[in-house]
Structures are given as C-alpha cells and as structure tokens.
Specification:
The complex is a heterodimer.
Chain A: H1 15-21, E1 24-28, H2 31-38, E2 46-51, H3 55-64, E3 70-76, H4 80-90, E4 95-97, H5 100-107, E5 111-114, H6 121-128, E6 134-137, H7 145-158, E7 162-164, H8 172-182, E8 189-197, H9 215-222, H10 234-250, E9 256-262, E10 275-284, E11 310-319, E12 327-333, E13 336-340, E14 344-349, H11 364-372, E15 391-396, H12 399-412, H13 422-441, E16 445-446
Parallel strand pairs in A: 1-15, 2-3, 2-5, 3-4, 5-6, 6-7, 8-11
Antiparallel strand pairs in A: 8-12, 9-10, 9-16, 10-11, 12-13, 13-14, 14-15
Chain B: E1 5-10, H1 14-35, H2 43-50, E2 56-57, H3 60-75, E3 83-85, H4 86-95, H5 121-124, E4 125-128, E5 133-136, E6 141-143, H6 146-158, E7 168-173, E8 177-181, E9 183-184, E10 187-193, E11 206-210, E12 213-220, E13 258-264, H7 267-280, H8 282-289, H9 294-297, E14 300-307, E15 310-315
Antiparallel strand pairs in B: 1-7, 2-5, 3-6, 4-5, 7-8, 8-12, 9-10, 10-11, 12-13, 13-14, 14-15
Helix pairs in contact in B: 1-6, 6-7
Classes of the chains: A alpha/beta, B alpha+beta.
C-alpha cells in the first residue's frame, strides 16, 4: 500500500524534534497584522447595526468599538434598560431603536449583528437577508432544526455573507489544535470528552420585586434560557460551542446520539434540564487523519495497522452545581492528547513502543551514557505523573474580537466564505438539538445520513 | 481571577439575592476583561502589546478610564501613575544622582518633581479624544490598572444594586479594596484595618464603620515579608515581589514598611489616593492633604508605619465617623 495518502500531509520536520525544541507555542492570530496593515489604507467603514443589546450584545458592541473598520450606526432592543446599555457602549453616533423592522428600513446597515435570545434568531435573520446586508448571528443559529435548514438554504440562495458566533473558530489555540489533529500528530482519535460544569443558578436578577405586577413576564423574559419556548437550555447555550469544535476537529457531524438529563437540583420553576449528559457517535472513514498508515520508524518494524473505518465516541456533560471541571475539551488520540480551553491548550504525548523517551536514534554513545550514569529515575507518588509534561499552546488575543474582525473583513469584501458559515451553523444546531431529543425521548436518535448537512465535510 | 472578590447582600429573597450576587461578580469579571494586563484577551493587555507600535482604538469605557487616570496623575502631582516598568527604569536612570535619603525613609530627590520630569504619565502616553486612541511614545511603556481596576470593578458592580432593589451590601476585592452600601440591619458595616506587616496579629490597627463609602489600603513591604494586602487585581502568581508599589519619582520600589488606608466616596477614588499618598511619603502627604481641594476634603487618610516592632496608624485627616 502506498503511503501517499493525499488527505494527510505530515509536517516536514520530525515531530519529536519540533516538540523538543520548544515547549511553548504562542499561536497568535494573524488577524492583527492584517488589521494593522489595512489601517489607514482606506477610510471605508462597515456600517454595523446590532439587534439584541443584553449581556452578550453589549459585549459585542464594546468590542466593535475597538475595531477601526466598524462604525456602529444603530442599536436595537425592545427592553429599555438593555437599549440604554447598548447605546452607552456604542457611542453617540449610534441611533437607538426599539423596533427591529423600523431599524432595518431606516438604517439599511452594511452588516447586522443578531444577539437576541435564541428563539428570535430565525425570524430576524430571514427578515434581514433580502436587504443584502452581511449577517453575524450569535450561536446557536436557530431554535429548531427546521428553522436552521430553512435559514441555511436562504443564505445560500442569497449568496449572503453569513457568520455564526462560534468564536472558537477564530481562536488560534483551536486552529492550532485542529491542524495538529489533521496532520496526524495525535494519531487516531479514540475519543473526545467535553464538559462545561458550573456552580450557579444561571439566573439573571429581575429588577422588579417578586410578586409585583409584571414580575412573572419579566422573569421569563430575562431568564429566557430556562424556558424551552425560547431556548434549548444547556445544549444550545453552552454545548453548541464545544460540539462545533468536535464537528470541526473530526470534519463531520455525528451519526447517532444517546443521552440522559434532568432537573435534579435547581427546582425553581425552570423548565430546561439543569444537568445534561450525551454520548455522540461519529463514524470516521478509513482515510481520516491519524488513521492513515504511518511509515515504519526503523527497518525492523513492520507496518501492522491497516486503516479502517472506526467510530469516535464523544461524551458531553454540563452541570450546574459543581464547577470543578470547568469548561474544556479533551481530544484523545493514540499518539497524544489535547486539552483545550479558550485561554490555553495543552498537548500531552502518549508513550508508545516507538518512543522510550530517552533513547535517541543512532546515537549509541549517548544512550549508553544515560543507562550507566547511575541516576535512578524516580516516579514519585503523583497519580498523574504518567501524563508527562505538556507542550503548551498559548494565545494572545480575544476570540470574540477576532471573530468580529474576520466577519467585518468578509462583509467589506462581500466574501461569503466566513470562518463559520451557515452550513457549520446548521450542523451545530442539528447536533445540539438532536442531543436534546435523545435526552427527552430516552432513546438513541440517528442523524439522517443522507442529509447534506451531516454528510458535510469541512473543506476549510 | 487575580484577586478574590466577595460580596455580601442583605434582603428577603435569597434566590433573587443569589442572582444579584452572580451579576455583581460577573460585572467584576467584565471589568477584568477590560483592565487586566495579564489576561491576553483583555483590552488593556492588547493596548500594552500594540500601543508602542501604532495608536490603538479603545472602547469608550476604557478611554474614559484612561482620561480619568490622566486627570488623577495631574491632581496627585504625578504620584498616581499607571505606567510601570520601563518608564520607572528610565526615571530611575535619569534621577539616580538625585537619590537622597529622607527622614521618612523614602529615597527620592527632593528636587525631583514628577509632574515636570521627563518621564511622567503624560510624557509617554498620548490619548487622542478625537480618534479615541491610545499610543505610547516610547517602546517600553506598559499600563497597570491593578489597584485602580479593583476599585473601578467594585464601583461598577455596586452601581447596579439600586436597579435590583438591594439597599444593603458589602463587597471587597482582594481584601484591599472594599465598598459598603447602606447599613446591615441596625448596624453599619464594620471594617477592620489589619496590620499589613503582621497579618496574623490579633488586633486590628483600626476599626471603622463604612456606609455608602469605600475603603482602600495600600502597603509597601520589604521583600522578605509576603504581601498581606492581597495581590494586585490581576497578579498571576505568588512570585510577584512583595513591594509592587513603585515610587514614580525614583523608579524604585518603596523600601520602608509603610501603609496607607483611605476612606472615600468611591472605591476608585480611594484606590487613587491610597496609592498616591503611599508613594508621596508621610511628609509630602501631610502637606498635600492640607490643600483646599473639594475631592480631598471628602476623603479620610490614615498613615501606617512600622518602627522597630511597633506598628502605628495615624489619621492624617479627620477620623471617619
């Protein structure tokens, strides 16, 4: 069998040498450099409107004000305290609106940022598409799979510039991780574990006394994440980030999911689960990265593995009464492990038969020295000593800012190839909502293999 | 998080108070994302990385904060200075020949006046209000909003309490910056000022009541005493040298064990003044505090000093009620 596996290109430098030379990799986003060189080149601004100026929307507004290219011309929210906050962050040049349709009509922005509660994403994006503006839609793309399919089709039809706010796609650490997996540095992926564990009630405070008139309506409004008519709960609000990373790393969507969830602690009237657990099955083809046959490292070794299709199981959990595990993704491969967060990535090498760690190929004298130097290697009592020391991937930058910079660049050049387009958004929506379905029905749920979204391979 | 923030809220609805408490702590985290110089995702960290190369466009909020800090720099004769590191080294190099030991133990040239010196804040940081940009005029400038940031975070978070009907609350950041709103039932919030040099000492140096006011403590410690006033807002590890207060006049860390506590209407103001007074030294501070400035009149300042084994606290202005 030929080793010329076209889908996989191993890096020219020996992997071990690369790791030995540096223990920290600072993966900086190339976006700043391009931002710097573009600055002053032209005065062309992108006129941006933001709808939904609550917590996330206000953060996006603040971030937009630090990007030269963006000019916030309007902010819109029908909850006055949020509109007030949005206007404060946006600055005096931005007009405030409480009606979305009016805002679109009067402002006709070049780009629109949708940061309203999940259930409003579909109708607002659909209303904006015919205007020709570029659209940045916060994750999760839609509240239902049907809506997501319809929106993705409409985006395609309009050839629109559309980006979903899954910001890890702009994070240099995750970009580096995906590259490492795809070049075979982790070997065959055996399993992936993601979780987002926190310890709080997830409630926003209501500025009206409980029992007073209007309290209940306002509580539902501000705590939309807790009610299924507005939100898919932990899966749509948290898991969508992490399962998009999984889809990205594995280059496809899942085929099947089982799950279990419930309300077991925060019995406060909420209607979404307060703890969720899912196992997703991804069917990997024979030519997936790492599964390719690797060259023997010495003439004596025979290549014994035959690439074969295999299943990667991905576990996901999110709980709200213990924060120990925090939020991270663990990608486990035969040659190495990646532990990823937005701030830092750690790569741990697996000890394999081809790597005793201290023996250097062909340097007999040095090997002899190590063996006879009289030092005793102590392992100590650390139960995690087997992991060894990680290779760190650090990053400079804020992925929310980077994703907005990337979006604005696409908006300016009318380039529909955004870093997270509607197809990725659709796949992500299907992934998380099918997980909810599996937990509700308490049975395994299949993703439809003939569905173009699940058969999608990441071309990026 | 660099510093530990804790919040106490009083009221009748525990679920509501829990949600308000989370919102307050979220706001502190939001401010950290704005003002941290250690978190690479923070806006200030980005400014520190890039402003030496080209003007950096910043958010309205950060620009306002930097303009306020510029104002405070001028109002404190340069003793509240958010530039660190390179600028202090430069200052130290230039004023090395002016080093004179003074009676209050601070090294510093009596003739050196930072407001007119070549390396004050305004000489190396350029704020452009038209474009809302920040730039550094020399390569090795960095901004540190550690202390001020704690105060600003507390003020920002507490500003929202009225919106949620919370009338009585207390919070601190790293135990060195505290703010109190309303009263705790019948009593006012009581705060003890601990001995910064002997944190295990049983007696507090002073006990004060705080009501709709803030308290900030800064201390300068010799290098073999661990910092006991809490780390700076976003210090990443315990390896930070104990005396992280630099005298902008000399560029040297303050060497005598001295401390300062300030009660002020807001936590930001308390931080500004406690930092500035500590750097000034007692003699200069007494003269400074005697000025007829409205904002100074609202503050109460205590000077803490170690002489031999004894540690004393003296109110340089009126004792807070």
């Amino acid at each position: 069998m030929s080793d010329d596996t076209s889908a996989v290109t191993a890096p020219k430098t020996d992997r071990r040498e690369f790791l030995r030379r540096s223990s920290v990799l600072v993966a900086s986003s190339a976006l700043w450099v391009s931002e710097l060189t573009a600055a002053g080149k032209d005065d062309e601004h992108v006129r941006v409107a933001v709808v939904g100026t609550g917590g996330r929307g206000s953060d996006l507004i603040r971030t937009l004000t630090t990007i030269d290219r963006a000019q916030i011309v309007a902010v819109c929210d029908n909850y006055p305290p949020h509109l007030e906050r949005g206007m404060k962050y946006a600055g005096p040049q931005a007009r405030g609106f409480s009606d979305y349709t009016t805002m679109l009509r009067e402002i006709r922005p070049d780009a629109l940022v949708v940061a309203t509660p999940l259930y409003l994403h579909f109708e607002m994006c659909m209303e904006a598409l015919p205007t020709g503006c570029a659209i940045f839609c916060e994750k999760t793309m839609c509240r239902s799979i049907e809506q997501a399919r319809e929106l993705a089709a409409a985006v395609h039809k309009h050839d629109a510039v559309f980006q979903v706010g899954l910001q890890r796609r702009a994070n240099a650490i995750y970009q580096q991780a995906v590259a490492m997996v795809q070049t075979g540095m982790l070997g065959q992926i055996g399993a992936i574990k993601c979780q987002w564990h926190r310890n709080n009630n997830w409630r926003r405070p209501v500025p009206v006394k409980r029992g007073a008139e209007g309290w209940e309506a306002l509580e539902h409004r501000l705590n939309w994440r807790l009610y299924p008519q507005y939100s898919g709960g932990l899966m749509t609000e948290l898991a969508s980030h992490q399962l998009d990373v999984v889809n990205w790393v594995l280059g496809r969507g899942p085929r099947r999911v089982i799950g279990s969830g419930g309300i077991d602690y925060w019995r406060d009237g909420r209607e979404v689960f307060d703890n969720v657990f899912c196992i997703y099955e991804y069917e990997m083809p024979a030519d997936s990265p790492g599964a390719a046959k690797t060259a023997p490292s010495s003439p004596a070794e025979k290549a014994t593995s035959t690439p074969a299709p295999h299943t990667v199981r991905v576990t996901y959990s999110s709980i709200q009464n213990n924060a120990f595990e925090g939020a991270s993704e663990l990608i486990m491969g035969t040659r190495g492990t990646l532990l990823l967060t937005q701030k830092k990535g750690l790569f741990y090498r697996e000890r394999g038969v081809d790597d005793p760690g201290w023996a250097k190929d062909g340097r007999v004298k040095e090997n002899a020295k190590v063996i006879t130097s009289g030092k005793t290697l102590k392992l100590g009592n650390d139960p995690w000593a087997h992991r060894g020391l990680p290779f760190e991937i650090a990053s400079e930058g804020d992925d929310t800012r980077d994703e907005l910079v990337a979006f604005l660049q696409c908006a300016q050049h009318r380039d529909p190839a955004t870093i997270c387009d509607a197809r990725h958004g659709l796949l992500d929506t299907e992934t998380v909502l099918t997980g909810n379905l599996a937990m509700e029905r308490k049975t395994a749920v299949e993703f439809h293999p003939q569905d173009p979204a699940t058969a999608l391979k990441d071309e990026g | 998080m660099g510093s530990l923030f804790e919040v106490w809220l009083c009221g009748e609805d525990p679920e509501h108070l829990a949600a308000v408490g989370e919102a307050v702590l979220d706001d502190c985290e939001r401010v950290e994302l704005l003002l941290s110089r250690f978190d690479p995702a923070a806006e200030l960290a980005r400014v520190n990385r890039q402003a030496g190369t080209a003007p950096v466009l910043v958010s309205y909020e950060l620009f306002d904060i930097l303009q306020d800090c510029a104002r405070y720099w001028a109002l404190t004769d340069g003793f509240f200075d958010i530039t660190v590191g390179g600028i202090a080294r430069e200052t130290a190099r230039r004023s090395a020949q002016n080093l004179v030991g003074t009676a209050d133990g601070h090294t510093g040239g009596a003739a050196f006046r930072p407001a007119h010196g070549p390396a004050g804040f305004a000489d190396v940081v350029r704020l452009d209000p038209q474009r809302r940009t920040v730039s550094f005029l020399t390569a090795d400038v960095a901004l540190d909003l550690g202390g001020f940031g704690k105060g600003y975070a507390l003020d920002s978070a507490f500003g929202r309490l009225a919106e949620f009907g919370v009338e009585s609350a207390f919070a601190h950041g790293g135990t060195s910056s505290a703010v109190a709103r309303g009263s705790r039932g019948e009593e006012r919030w009581q705060v003890g000022i601990r001995n910064p040099f002997h944190p295990d000492a049983e007696d507090d140096l002073a006990q004060i009541e705080l009501c709709d006011a803030a308290l900030s403590s800064s201390a300068a410690l010799s290098s073999d005493v661990p910092a006991s006033d809490g780390s700076t807002f976003d210090a990443p590890s315990t390896d930070v040298p104990a005396s992280d207060v630099i005298n902008p006049a000399t560029g040297q860390p303050l060497i005598q064990q001295t401390g300062c506590s300030v009660v002020a209407p807001t936590a930001s103001l308390a931080e500004v003044l406690s930092t500035a007074v500590l750097a000034m030294g007692k003699q200069r501070a007494v003269a400074y505090l005697g000025r007829e400035e409205p904002w100074l009149q609202l503050c109460r300042v205590a000077w803490i000093e170690q002489a031999g084994d004894a540690v004393s606290l003296e109110w340089l202005t009126g004792v807070p009620r």
